[in-house]
């Protein structure tokens, strides 16, 4: 049960990271296409896309971190289970 | 034991789905009320046109675009209006709203007209023009200085709606509950029989903003 929940959350965070990466690319492209207001040497950039870029960046970092941690524990559990099975087989053979 | 655990999870998921659905329904509410008519005023010293675009025409798949709301103020007083240092001569118009720009999170003049002139923007905009009362016009500078900021809760719609309600007579006011978004304002504008789709926006005067002290800083151009 615990393993199933972990797998579900790993998939959820992987999807979230993928969406955040898509958003990062999308908002960057939009911001690059946006105009800039200039007065002499002063330049004013539209902040709406920059705010969304920050949010997408934050979500991307958090979801990738959570995904990595969950994947690490899943693989660790799998290795443990494999080692336990191997040991059991060796004991049976002996 | 295992079965009751699963049932609890399913109930929790169903509850979350129901809450998400309710939230979505509530946020899309508004603007479904009775039709309204603009109450005219022969002696109006100015007119204000309230615009709202929900961003539908510019949305990129999967990305957020909340749209924009702004006002077009047209001076008909026969005298030049001084809006915190921004001069609006009689017969001239200016767009006003709040923006989150790196130079200033606050009130900006004539950005929207420059956008419409230079780019394909606000293609789904709705607008309605309403007369401005003399009492309202006398309070405008105080409002501009007081609301000279931008945040998620004090956004373009909150600023636009607040200024609109300050300028117009009681019968023409617009009330919106909850978090203010351009889409909700657009729905309210659609209730007016006189509302117009993709109305032309022509302004005069400089593009600029109000600084922290509430003084106009102009001379900007859109590149």
Strand order of the largest sheet of chain B: 8-7-1-2-5-6-9-10
User: Portion of residues in helices of chain B?
Assistant: 25-40%
Q: What portion of residues of chain A belong to β-strands?
A: 5-15%
Largest sheet of chain A: 2 strands, antiparallel
- Report how far the terminal alpha carbons of chain B are from each other: 66 Å
**Strand sequence of the main sheet of chain A, in spatial order?**
1-2
First-residue to last-residue Cα separation of chain A: 33 Å
Which residues of chain B form runs of ≥5 with pLDDT under 50?
Answer: none
Oligomer: heterodimer
Structure description:
The complex is a heterodimer of chains A (94) and B (223). With 94 residues, chain A is mostly helical. Helices cover 84% and strands 9% of the residues of chain A. Chain A is built from 2 helices and 2 strands. In chain A, a hairpin with a 2-residue loop joins β1 and β2. The radius of gyration of chain A is 23 Å and the shape is rod-shaped. The mean pLDDT of chain B is 89. By secondary structure, chain B is α+β, with helices and mostly antiparallel strands. In chain B, β5 and β6 (105-109) form a beta hairpin. The longest helix of chain B has 26 residues, at 2-27. The chains are: A mainly alpha (94), B alpha+beta (223). Chains A and B meet through α1, β1, β2 and α2 of A and α2, β9 and β10 of B. β1 of chain A pairs antiparallel with β10 (216-222) of chain B, so a sheet runs across the interface.
